[in-house]
Amino acid sequence: MKKLSILALSAVLVAVSCKESKTDSVTTATEQAVAEHTGETFTVNTDSTTVKWTAYHKGGLNPRFGTTKTAGTFSVENGNLVSGSLTSDLNTLTTDPAAVDPAMSDGKTSADLDAHLKSADFFDTAKYPSVKFDITKVEDLAAGTESKVAGANKTVSGNLTIKDKTVNVSFPAKVEVTENGLTMVSIFTINRQDWGLAYGTEGDPKDWMISQEVDLELNVVAGK
Fold first, then answer.
1. Alpha carbons 167 and 187: distance in angstroms, whole number
2. Facing residues of 155 across strands?
3. Torsion-angle region of residue 171: left (phi > 0), alpha (psi -120 to 50) or beta?
4. What stretch of H or E contains 112?
5. Tens of pLDDT along 140-183?
């Protein structure tokens, strides 16, 4: 039995080390001053915008994924994105049914996971109903910077607030601005522990089995 346990642990560690990244990494910092709103205002089209999330068990196994609804505005000056704010309503958080097989999860469904994520065990939406992202800076993507997003041309930095904690994150993005519209595409990974998101108390085995990595994919569409 002991030998079997060691083999099982080794398999998990190998899976962790071999998980292929399909997202960009973020650079984190303390909360920064929010960029001033200047120029023209573009309003996010909530129906056309998608914010997808993916969470994993250890080693990238058994992923759970879904979406949230997002609203917000951007400021554009001289054809460039200069500032903006996005708010995701966590009460709209929905797990894709394809991510949860009741036969493999003791009969639990995607709806059960939705309820659990909204509970005090995780997001506590009764107290913290939304996640907010306020842009602090937008820069041209540095030459030679690799990104998982085809055509990435900017580095977007902003204060990401989850529950009662704010962390500044910077990530590559493809930002396109036209006379009447704006799109922003990005896919990056955050560490949930940076925002104190844990299941149970510190060191709880239930929390250990969940990867600290959470992937976020933004496809934001805005217009005048």
1. 18
2. 139, 172
3. beta
4. helix 110-118
5. 999 999 999 999 999 999 999 999 999 999 999 999 999 999 99
Q: How many CB atoms lie within 10 A of CB 128?
A: 15
pLDDT digits (tens, 9 = 90+) for 89-113: 999 999 999 999 898 888 899 999 9
DSSP helix/strand/coil, 97: helix
Q: Which CATH architecture has domain 2-223?
A: Beta Barrel (2.40)
Instruction: List Cβ neighbours of 90 (8 Å cut-off, separation of 6 or more).
Output: 68, 118, 123, 125, 128, 129, 130, 131
| Both structure tokens of 149 | 């997003």
Cα–Cα dist 123/130, whole Å:
9
**Residues 190, 197: contact at Cβ < 8 Å?**
no
List Cβ neighbours of 112 (8 Å cut-off, separation of 6 or more): 100
Q: Three-state SS for 193?
A: helix
CB atoms within 10 A of CB 118: 17
Six token digits for residue 212:
């600290």
Query: What's this model's pTM, rounded to 2 decimal places?
Result: 0.87
